[in-house]
Amino acid sequence: MNPNSVAYALSNEWPLTECEWRSDTSSLPPLLLATTHRSAVEFLVRFQRKLVEQALAQTEAPNFRLKAVLRTIFEGGTMSLNQALLPEFDHEMANTRKTLERVPDDKFDWKPHQKSFSMGALATHLATLPSWAAITIEKDSIDIAPVGQEPPKSEPCKSREELLSRFDGHVAAARAALAGSSDEVLLKTWTLLSGGKTIFELPRIAALRSFVMNHNVHHRAQLGVYLRLNDVPVPSIYGPSADEGSF
Predict the structure, then answer these.
(1) Which of 118, 130, 47 minimizes the C-alpha distance to 83?
(2) Could you tell me which CATH class the domain 81-229 is placed in?
(3) Closest CA to 235 of 111, 97, 129
(4) Boundaries of CATH 1.20.120.450 in the chain?
């Protein structure tokens, strides 16, 4: 059996009695960190605390081991790329929705600076961003300034209700597209163009994380500053905010 495979780690050849679960990667043996399923391992480490708590609540075994957690996550010793990304997608979209829920209807025209987005324009962009996930999965490229054509653009939302409705629709479509994607599709190259010129080329999975999800987090943080400057309570995201002391 390949000593750099997840299957090896899940087999009895791994001396689990010597491995205690800890809050850092030191508890993961080198053979697992060396596996080609690196993204899944990183996902595992990131969510290990929550997974361990859930698993411990369901078992009476006095000495719980990493093997049980791995078997919860890896089906047949592997995890598909979409299944590794979906929990993070759900988590980030839920946090973005919490932020959009705070946008006041009477502040859509407010700007912190003359060069800045208005609050309504920023929130509209944030509500529309998830639609790029389906575009990234279903198309090989997109040109944001096609020659001789109008660039793609979204109609501005005019109320919080409209923001949330648009966001929910795009998130549902994005999640369905991601859930239905194979590793083969997600590893194919996706291209962003402007005026026919390539801005970047990335595997779809990388474009989804950076161009869609990280992009979303970036603008969500901006919107949080807009809320603070208008004395609107900022929701807790990765930890308590100055207005909310709990998750």
Answers:
(1) 47
(2) mainly alpha
(3) 97
(4) 81-229
